[in-house]
């Protein structure tokens, strides 16, 4: 679904570029791991089309990214960034329905298919207690669950998540990663994380940023050794 051809990502003034050699990702749950400032968020923004400050090429479903319209991209990729968006006085269920906008016509009429998808995700994430509360009064963890729900409602084959478990307690952290693993059988899900304890159990692969280079690790037996090398004795 995503094909990368020798890209170099600009990370900031006087910082070396992040290099990603040829890489193809089809399906499964992939953890994006690296130290703070290594370029995890920048890489996800490049994949999503938000950041075009790089050399090289990215293809999404065999189409060069720069040839895909914003509307087409919204049907291919859903994104949850680490900084929570502001939704005014919207309640939780309103935010979920925003995930259906790419499929609606000019008048944004809600269809039975839209409602069915939203209800399916509410059940899946057990969001019933919070969907009728104002988004602004929800806790950080509850907001994050709603945002993950919106990404699932968008019903794309590719989902990119920047620190989706950052504000969740241990129980919900495991629940979300386990859920992502379940739905990734037919999707490509990439999530950046510092919570490395669940990677070996639930992830199909790991994208490791080290020494200004992104490496792909798809053998679970190598996960622990690679993480120990990256974080030395911290894991």
Structure report:
The chain is of the alpha/beta class and 235 residues long. The protein has a domain at 2-90 and 157-231: 3-Layer(aba) Sandwich (Rossmann fold). The protein contains eight helices and eleven strands. It has helices at 40-48, 70-76, 92-97, 112-125, 140-153, 170-183, 199-202, 220-231; strands at residues 2-9, 18-20, 23-25, 28-33, 54-60, 63-64, 77-80, 158-162, 188-192, 205-210, 213-217. The strands form two sheets. A six-stranded mixed β-sheet has the order 7-8-9-4-10-11, with helices on both faces. Strands 1, 2, 3, 5 and 6 form a five-stranded antiparallel β-sheet that branches. A hairpin with a 2-residue loop joins strand 5 (54-60) and strand 6. The radius of gyration is 18 Å and the shape is globular.
CATH class of the domain at 2-90 and 157-231: Alpha Beta
Strand content: 15-25%
Principal-axis shape equals globular
Number of helices: 8
User: Span between N and C termini?
Assistant: 32 Å
Topology pattern, helix = H, strand = E: EEEEHEEHEHHHEHEHEEH
CATH superfamily of the domain at 2-90 and 157-231: P-loop containing nucleotide triphosphate hydrolases
Low-confidence stretches: none
How are the strands of the biggest sheet laid out side by side? 7-8-9-4-10-11
Question: For the residues shown, what is the average pLDDT?
Answer: 88
CATH architecture of the domain at 2-90 and 157-231: 3-Layer(aba) Sandwich
Helix content: 25-40%
Total E-strand runs:
11
As a whole number of angstroms, the C-alpha radius of gyration is 18 Å
């Amino acid at each position: 679904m995503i094909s990368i051809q020798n890209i170099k990502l600009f990370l900031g003034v006087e910082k070396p570029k992040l290099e990603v050699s040829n890489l193809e990702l089809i399906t499964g749950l992939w953890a994006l791991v690296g130290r703070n400032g290594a370029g995890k968020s920048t890489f996800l923004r490049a994949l999503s089309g938000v950041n075009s400050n790089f050399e090289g090429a990215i293809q999404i479903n065999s189409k060069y990214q720069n040839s895909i319209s914003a509307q087409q991209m919204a049907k291919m990729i859903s994104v949850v960034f680490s900084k929570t968006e502001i939704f005014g006085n919207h309640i939780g269920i309103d935010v979920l329905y925003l995930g259906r906008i790419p499929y609606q016509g000019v008048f944004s009429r809600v269809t039975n298919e839209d409602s069915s998808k939203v209800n399916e995700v509410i059940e899946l994430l057990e969001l019933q207690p919070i969907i009728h509360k104002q988004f602004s009064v929800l806790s950080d963890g509850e907001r994050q669950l709603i945002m993950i729900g919106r990404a699932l409602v968008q019903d794309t084959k590719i989902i990119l998540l920047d620190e989706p478990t950052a504000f969740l307690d241990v129980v919900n952290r495991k629940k979300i990663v386990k859920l992502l693993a379940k739905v990734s059988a037919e999707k490509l899900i990439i999530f950046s994380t510092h919570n490395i304890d669940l990677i070996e159990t639930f992830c199909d692969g790991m994208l490791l940023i080290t020494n200004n280079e992104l490496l792909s690790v798809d053998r679970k037996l190598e996960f622990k050794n690679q993480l120990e090398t990256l974080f030395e004795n911290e894991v």
